[in-house]
Amino acid sequence: MAEEGDVVSKTFRALVERADRKFARVRDFPSYGRAQGQHYFQKVFKAYMRLWKYQQEHRTELVKAGLNRWEIGEIAGRIGQLYFGQYTRTSEARFLVEAYVFYEAILKRRYFEGCKVKDLGVRFKELRFYARFLLVSLILNRTQTVKVVVAKLKALVDDCNANFRETNFKEWKLVVQEIVRFMNADTTFTIASARPFRYSAIFDCHPNSVQYVARFHAKKVLKFRDAILMSYHRNEVKFAELTLDAYRMLQCLEWESSGSFYPKHLAETKENGVVVDYSGTSGLIDMKLVADMTDPTLPPNPRKAILYRPSVTHLIAVMATICEELPPESVILVYLSASGKPSHINASPVESSGGPKRSTKNKLTSHNSLEQNFSSPESHINGKKGSSDYYDDYLWLGSKGNGGSSNLYPGDIIPFTRRPLFLVIDSDSSHAFKAERGEKAALLLSPFRPMFKDPFSADITQNGSQFTFFLTAPLQAFCQMTGFALSDSDIEVLNNAENILSTAFSKWEVILCKSPSLDLVWAQVLSDPFLRRLIIRFIFCRAVLSAFCSSEESEQYVPVCLPQLPNSLSPKAEVVQSSVSQLANHLNVADGFHFDNT
Hints:
Blueprint: H1 2-26, H2 38-57, H3 59-64, H4 69-90, H5 93-109, H6 120-139, H7 143-163, H8 170-185, H9 187-190, H10 207-215, E1 223-232, E2 238-239, E3 242-243, H11 244-252, E4 270-271, E5 274-275, E6 303-308, H12 312-325, E7 330-338, E8 349-352, E9 363-365, H13 377-381, E10 395-396, E11 407-408, E12 421-426, E13 442-445, E14 451-452, H14 460-463, H15 466-472, H16 474-482, H17 491-514, H18 520-523, H19 529-548, H20 554-557, E15 560-562, H21 574-586
Parallel strand pairs: 1-6, 1-7, 7-12, 8-14, 12-13
Antiparallel strand pairs: 2-3, 4-5, 8-9, 10-11, 13-15
Helix pairs in contact: 1-2, 2-4, 4-5, 4-6, 5-6, 6-7, 7-8, 10-17, 11-15, 15-16, 15-19, 17-21
InterPro entries: SCAI (IPR022709)
GO molecular function: transcription corepressor activity
Protein name: RGS domain-containing protein
């Protein structure tokens, strides 16, 4: 029997070493590109599944031979890492759910907690597990799970500080601060009744317009398959390498399950009504559970490459790779959120609007906005540049003092317009991108500056970008801009407000589909639900900001699109203004707007 136990133990250790070697090969593979190491991923998955199955079948012998519970947790954690890595490369929801299943099982079975080891290495493994589980739970909107794990992470950091005084845990204290800051900024946590950022067939597919969208046929219809999301601001809200703005855009470009496929809360597992204690030796994780947690009727999500603080050359390399691999008749969305002009750190004023009187005397210095010293503002608004200011405007991707190597110029994007491009620029230098040549691309450009009734809301380091917020959560952005306290509101009031928006968006979709003047650039992407929703929300954002600021200030505070959308949906169009007015009156904030006879 002893010899048999030795054989089992040696076989298990050999499988662990083999799986770890394969894991090391794929861990640092880039998360973009369609064929990046897929062969290796299949091999490492196979190795870990074989290891997992072996430890399940020989659990008793392995425990007798000295197998620790944290070692089982580490194997499950590696499998969770692999699944999450596949999610970042493919954006397939099933991989994200698989990662969640494994991480949740580790938590429930207390693989790390139950051992009570005074081993610093094991404690670091547990800290990393909590951080990875938090990221997966955030993206899946498991708010209750996030709160539970944050509490455990805080307690573990405090325990490590007390028991390992010679070790500095400052970085882990910062991790705790990051997630708490993220939770305070993310409305998913502050507003329980908030609708999902993801595309929901229940809320975002409007019955009155669906027949027009279904019958809409442009001369050329493009499929939305790939996206690049990049946010780069100093001291912006983030967790790990996921910034708040990138997080909102990521969710905005994915499908929401119907809600009946998985629970929102972290529930105790029960059998026959009795809570199951997983602190024993059982290592069973039901890998078939994922079939009950995903919606097979939904189309695939577009692939998304999320770049955290990339260099300019890295961003361009990623864009080149994805454009090169883009299938025919497809469009790529590129979302770039960054400041411009680092040489002008003297802060820019942010408009504070408290009512019908438009006064610019009350202004707040934003910690993150950068002064716009355009040599000729009119030329930028008209989309023209002089030779002297050709290189004056850019996005700044770098640390202080990096110089021109950190500047992303509008001209850097020109080569990629050879492929169909849907470009969203959220920056105080966004309008510089109007002036560039190249093939015709769809452009959504943010205002130079945000506008709020309460100027303290303008700090991007606390709340994220206003323009991005409008594109991803229009009602919440509207309430934030007008100072309407969402968290204290009656749910019925919010539901009625959402219904007002849904009715308006449905009307605007019909107008877009029926418009004879709709440019082909917009027409060829209108059939895609994600891009259509962004276009409609842009129309809403533009109309709201146009009515919230005075006409002489509109060049600074109103977003722009190129090519122009039909005049029938301009900010002054009756069908648009009446909807904004109805929403403002419903929330009792109409005194902050000025409408033209609506």
